[in-house]
Structure formats: C-alpha cells, structure tokens
C-alpha cells in the first residue's frame, strides 16, 4: 500500500523498526543493572533508587510465587498512581502473570463484570476499597492484598516484601503471545471489553516513542510526571517509558492544577503527557508562569483531540511544543503522532509511527478506501495493536479484520498522509440529513475568549432527527450569553452546524483521565426527558 507519510520522516527515523521480543520486566532489570543508584520513583517524600525498586519488585514476586502464583495468573491492581502500583505491576510481569487494570473509582456494579470476566486470583487495593471489592459477586474468590502500612488483618504488600524471600522461578515469556495487561474499555457505551495487551505491544510503543522523540531524552536522569492514571493505557506507557529510560517516575494521584504546579515547581519534570483538559487548566490558571514548564523536553497531548486554540495558547505561554498523539486502548495508545522535529500541520494529529499503517474507509461497509480529504473510519495496523478482547471472540472479530483495527473514530487523511481526527462514529450528529462532527464545533467554541471548556453533542429532534446542543464552562471573570455564542458560531459555521441549545455549567463530566464525556451528556439529557415525561403524565 502507499505510505505517503514516509516522505515526511526525518532522516533519523527508520520506516521499520526491529522490536525486541522480551518481557517488560526486562526493562526494569536492565535499568537497575545499568544505573542502580539512579532515582526510579519520587512518590511524595519517598524516593526509591533502581536498585531499591528492583529488590522490592523481586521480593514481592517471590512472596506471590511462594503462595502459589504461576504464569498466566491474573492479578488485579486497583490503585491510584503510587509506588505500590509500580511494584505490583512489575512483580506480576516477572512471574509471567497478567495485570488486570482496575479503576479505583469504579463502584461495585462496575467491578462485578470486570472481576467475574477476568477472574483474577489476587487483587491489591487500599484499605478503603476492600469492602467494595468483597461485596462484588467475585469477591469471595479473591485474595485481597492491601497497599497501606496497616493491613487490618489482610495480606499486606509491605509485609510480604519484608520477608525478603528471593526464591523466584525461571519464566519463559512469549512476547508476541503472552498477555501483560488486561485494560477494560467501552463501559460508557455498552458492556466493557478487556483489551489484551501483550509484552510485544508494549515494547513496540516504547520503541516507536523512542525513535520519534528524535533524541530529545537521555538515559538516565529524565523526570516523568505521571498525570495519566496507570490503570489507563496511556498512563501505563508513561510509567513503563520512565523505567525504559532509567528516569524518575513522579506519580500524581489526582490531577489538580494547584497541586500539579507545586509538584512541577519542586521536581522540574522533563516529560509531560496529559489530556487536553490539563492544558486548559494550565493556561487558565492565574498563577501559571512562563518558567513553570521550562525544563520540559517532551510535552505530549492525548486521550482526545486538543483544541487548536488551547494548543497555541499553551505553547505561547510555556515555550514548549506539544506533540499531539492519536491512539486508543486497543492500539496501546500512540499509533499516530506529530514528531518532535519536522513538519507539523495545524489541526492534524500527525503521521503514523514506524511499522504502522493507516487508511480511511467508508462508514457503511468499511471496505472502500476513501480519497484524500474525505471522511471515513480510521483503520490502523501495526505491532502495537491488541491481541483481541478477553473472552469475547465476537467483538474481537468485529474490531480486528484482516489485520486491521477498526477504531470507530472518523477522520480524514490528506495527500501527504497526515491524519485529521473528526470524531467518533457513535458521536456523529445527523441533523436534517447532514453529517455534523462535534469536534469541528468544539474548535470554534474554544476560540471564544470567554469559553474555558465546551462539548457539543446531539440530542433527539422530532423534525431534524437530531439537533446540536452544547454545554459550556465559562472562564472566571467572564460573562457570556446564549445570544453571543450563537452569533459567534453563525459567523464561523454553516447554518445547520450552529448549536440550537446552549447550557452553561460549572463543570463538564470527565473520565478518569480527564477526557470530556460527550456520551454522558447525551445520556443525562435523555434521562431528564424521561423524568419530565413521567412528571407530565402524572
């Protein structure tokens, strides 16, 4: 197939890469061997060197092995970003086990399916989460391990480490076949699906990132700010990337702008990967200073398209270039990105990384390749693409066809191979026969001087089928009216794209990684319609 994007690869970036076939644990082992005294983790007041981290990982792995853990066993990690997460993660991979990534914000009904589906033998969590896990349908089958210093009668990670047992088995890992992590996705639009990410998938993303960073980072000594949660694919890759580079990983439990600025000013990170909402928080914070991010070498945005206005404002204030990336859990995060050096096109998320193919196909059959500039579904192929969905061959066969991942995202590709993400297939609004892509309207709204955040979504309409509604968060010390927003859009958009309903809010619903949940706004609107219908009938 044609790969026009290769013409835009700088000379330092190969078209194809040799991806190593090894366990992800190998990267920790290598960094500990090469730089034993280098700082590996900075978690609050606690710092661990690579030698100390590897010892804790091996001791915890040995404690698990002593208690019957064997290759292929599933181990649930239900923690916010912290040093214990890193220890548990690499311990499980050392034994050839599978990490089941569990969001600690999930409630009992959400955990019921994931635990019953993945069937872990063990789960680690904070004391405050134990009751919730025990009350799930699968809770009685689990060995629960606490990450807190006080065990409350449960098994405890720190106590097991202190046993200093060093008996570990020889484990052979088939990098391309053996699963390293199960990451559940799709819960907001249906039954969650367990994405099977292999050791090879993770290695591929590491190497893709390494070469496309074009020598911006050195080994060792970089400082990675862990904004994305590790239970998310992007957060896992940031953490593993820090270990690969023998850098210091600085876990952020919750992203709150005031706390984040304090951490940044104290530790001066060189690497930041964050969702667009984090960059909105930076540029709108009254105390954000030009010098705050002056130490950054890599600044990456992912999880959702970043509005052009936000990107430009952040880069102007910080002096740091944002490298936007496109990917999803099923593609193990980054598959397309803007490189650190070379051509960057406004509005584009970049070009495919090495070993990766991209094409745009028609929305109805998914078979016909679309011409340059025409919208269609984004398809990806490469070594970072998931193995499939856990225990779900039907969904796997729908998502993976002839080696291609059908992403469910709509985009266009220009003649040079640069990708422009338009939106999700399920989020596309069809009003009066017109296809309307919410991201396009979002972009226009973010250009308004009084808009802090905006999210456009489709709602039912008796005449048009659907119509356009927008939820807006206004910047502090600004006053914005409905009439002003409508007039702003009329001047910049075709008439059928102009929002018909406008709602001002104090905040918008967001995912655990800070992505604005468009679907949640739709569901909330429909629920209110039902309530109003019941009220009117009564």
UniProtKB/TrEMBL annotation:
PROSITE patterns linked to this entry: AMP_BINDING
Keyword list, A-Z: Ligase
InterPro entries reported in the protein's UniProt record: AMP-bd_C, AMP-bd_C_sf, AMP-binding_CS, AMP-dep_synth/lig_dom, ANL_N_sf, ATP-dep_AMP-bd_enzyme
GO molecular function: ligase activity
Entry annotated with the keyword Ligase: yes
Keyword Ligase: yes
Domain AMP-dependent synthetase/ligase: 28-390
Domain called AMP-binding enzyme C-terminal: residue spans: 440-515
Record PANTHER family: LONG-CHAIN-FATTY-ACID--COA LIGASE, NONRIBOSOMAL PEPTIDE SYNTHASE PES1 (EUROFUNG)-RELATED
Protein name per the record: Long-chain fatty acid--CoA ligase
